[in-house]
Amino acid sequence: MDVKTLCLGVLSRGEASGYEIKKAFAEGPFSHFHQASFGSIYPALNALAAEGLVEVREQAQDKRPDKKIYSITPKGRNALVAALMTEPAPDAMRSDFLFILSFAQYLPPARVDQLIDQRIAWYREALARMEACACNETIPAGPAFVRGMGIAVYRAAADYLEANREKLLAEIGESALMVAE
Amino acid sequence: MDVKTLCLGVLSRGEASGYEIKKAFAEGPFSHFHQASFGSIYPALNALAAEGLVEVREQAQDKRPDKKIYSITPKGRNALVAALMTEPAPDAMRSDFLFILSFAQYLPPARVDQLIDQRIAWYREALARMEACACNETIPAGPAFVRGMGIAVYRAAADYLEANREKLLAEIGESALMVAE
DNA sequence: GCCCACCTATATAGGGTTGATATATGCAGG
DNA sequence: CCTGCATATATCAACCCTATATAGGTGGGC
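ok -> structure tokens follow
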């Protein structure tokens, strides 16, 4: 699933500029399971335009660089569906948080406490945002399903952290004492 | 959290060759939240050796290339702890599965059904493996905590998929009928 | 028995991605 | 008034991943 396909996916939901596509990956509904940066989005859009999978429309703007608005073509929609039918690559997660916590024994308990605090706050905030945006508008079945899964997983993570933090802190507190003795 | 730090983390748990470090990221306890490939591990180990953070010991082997066994130095341990004290980058997840499911409306229901089947099977298998490796040996508090969190999250994901798949399939089945009419 | 596929083991080239930076301007808050 | 942030596109170096090269051992199917 390369950046070209991801851009097609965003554009299938409506026309957008490169900047807006970047925002979709930074804040939008895709942000929880895929990211892309300017350095990959702009070349991808150029390649997609060259292949006829997207169309460009330049919009002049006052005192700002011209906005290049991209829209998906019928050929582009076919390419997107073809990509969606290929075997998905295995999920990959990168979490510095979990990596650091694997070495909790070597860290000051205050540091571990603070990390877990921050993470719980982050999950709760993300959950509030995800749960809020559903009431007013009817969203299609696919996005609704994915959103529900995100909520279920984040809630499980936050609940686990809250339920088990004291036990972890007690255990690394003990071993810190043992080292001191 | 670059590959050099990840290698130090693996080596802090015992000496290993580049090949074994790669296996730790492919199958070991880190595999669920960080990955690294040969193309990044070997240069990272060379750089770490040049900086005096790891030591190399060459072990001749019958009918195979010499094994270079790396071990972390006291200086390396300090560097690891220093890295663990820096602010962790935000978690990032890449899931082609969720990306594809966001476009479930455009896909044949049979395809969606198959994807969810495969994913549930994958989660259940991962859970079985993760739950199995705890009974016999006593693992430190940090890894135990991280392992528990992984189990909680995977279980929530699998449960969600099982509980909501019928609803999704019913909804995209309906819209498929509407398109046909 | 034989062949194919996979495992051990290191290394590199090529291509894709990230993160930082450059450019230019408006707007809000201290 | 000035700093920081948002809009908007674009590029570059550093980093990382995928695929490949090399080379022999091991296990399963036919």
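The two ends of chain A are 54 Å apart (CA to CA).
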